[in-house]
């Protein structure tokens, strides 16, 4: 897929339409648009939940994983387990079954999303790029922080690394490019900003996002019942905290 254009308003794809394409012999990709806008992304999250429910209810057989992205969903399946009529290929049968679930889901109401408050200590050692990014955007650091935490945002997808959320779509004024030179080490919990999106690094990783703050929350823990703190479709609020509060929360080990 080409690089997605970020928009505030819905793209040209009607609500009830999607395309289904193979990605190898055991995965199908459901695509809902070519433009990243909030409405399309929320439809992706809604349809992904409906597909998961269909699997749990035994309506879809052979599904091994459902992976929502920004404007598409990857559905991994085992062809030998797909329910087929006589003479029907598994690919053909599975496409029909997916299409039936999506059509029914299109008329159902979306579930109320979870809302997660994310405490952030901005600037200083926690966000070493804050001042430079604010200056490049012709903002003060204080106004950048206010814009970053001034709206309810969506978890657009989780990917790149375990539990790594992409969050947006941010105010149009918060649109810096990524760093020209990525860092080889970025601390876990770091808040990155670029292209009207934020990310939260779940682990110490390399990365090229502008670092404007850090959260004491543990966004990925393989030993938790739910390892990923966030999932596609969740709502996020960034809440500014002081360094003292950050250190206190980190010592308490939040969240458990």
Automatic annotation (TrEMBL):
The keyword Flavoprotein does not apply. Gene3D superfamilies: 3.30.1360.40, Cyclophilin-like. Residues 18-230 form the Carboxyltransferase domain. Keywords: ATP-binding, Hydrolase, Nucleotide-binding. This is Allophanate hydrolase. It comes from the Bacteria. One of its GO terms (molecular function) is ATP binding.
């Amino acid at each position: 897929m080409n690089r997605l254009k970020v928009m505030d308003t819905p793209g040209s794809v009607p609500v009830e339409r999607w395309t289904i394409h193979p990605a190898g012999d055991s995965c199908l990709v459901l695509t809902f648009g070519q433009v990243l806008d909030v409405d399309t992304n929320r439809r992706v999250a809604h349809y992904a939940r409906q597909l998961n429910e269909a699997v749990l209810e035994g309506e879809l057989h052979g599904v091994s994983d459902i992976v929502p992205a920004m404007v598409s969903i990857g559905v991994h399946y085992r062809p030998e387990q797909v329910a087929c009529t006589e003479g029907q290929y598994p690919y053909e049968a599975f496409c029909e079954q997916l299409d039936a679930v999506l059509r029914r889901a299109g008329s159902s109401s979306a579930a109320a999303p979870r809302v997660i408050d994310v405490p952030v200590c901005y600037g200083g050692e926690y966000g070493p790029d804050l001042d430079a990014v604010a200056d490049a955007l012709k903002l003060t650091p204080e106004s950048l922080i206010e814009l970053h935490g001034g709206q309810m945002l969506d978890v657009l997808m989780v990917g790149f690394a375990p539990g790594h959320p992409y969050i947006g779509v941010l105010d149009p004024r918060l649109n810096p490019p990524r760093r020209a030179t990525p860092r080889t080490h970025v601390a876990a919990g770091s808040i990155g900003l670029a292209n009207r999106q934020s990310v939260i690094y779940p682990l110490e990783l390399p990365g090229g996002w502008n670092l404007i703050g850090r959260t004491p929350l543990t966004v990925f823990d393989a030993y938790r019942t739910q390892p990923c703190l966030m999932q596609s479709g969740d709502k996020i609020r960034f809440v500014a905290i002081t360094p003292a509060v950050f250190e206190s929360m980190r010592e308490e080990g939040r969240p458990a």
